[in-house]
Amino acid sequence: MSSSSSTNYSQYRGEETCKCGRRAVMRTSLTVKNPERRFLGCINYKKHNDCNFFVWVDPETCPRGLEYARRMQAIKDELERQVEELKMMNEGLKRGKEMVEEENDALVVKLADLTEMNINLIASNEALQAQIEGRKKFGKSFFLGENHSSGSPIVCCLCDWCACVKPLP
Ligand SMILES: [Zn+2]
To answer: Which of 11, 58, 141, 149 is the most buried (most CB within 10 A)?
Structure first.
């Protein structure tokens, strides 16, 4: 663009014909060097069959305008950098979330196991509690429970031949 930037913009008469014979197209440059500066170019500008016709329509951007464009570009670059950072952070958070969910699933399974274990312990604690209560009532003879129909206690005297002996839960 440096070779053609010397072209006098005042030559523009409202319509220009390309080197390729077609009508030139007006576009706006948004580069930091030529911000918001209109130019005429080939209809195939920057494509493989560009005839390389190029002429500025607007005068060169003033120094203040150039400084403003530089600052805007710096802000844009910084914002794009921050967007990239946030994208990476978001990816990290997604991975963290997946890990936490996996851990949670494992803990749910563990909790179910512990709940079952707890239910069993409560049952065996109740059985032991009943043994203690039975011992209080019936002395040294071994309380094994209550007869479901009669409600009378089933006790074992702990003799070697006693048929009522059964293993503790
Ligand atoms: Zn052309």
So the answer is: 141
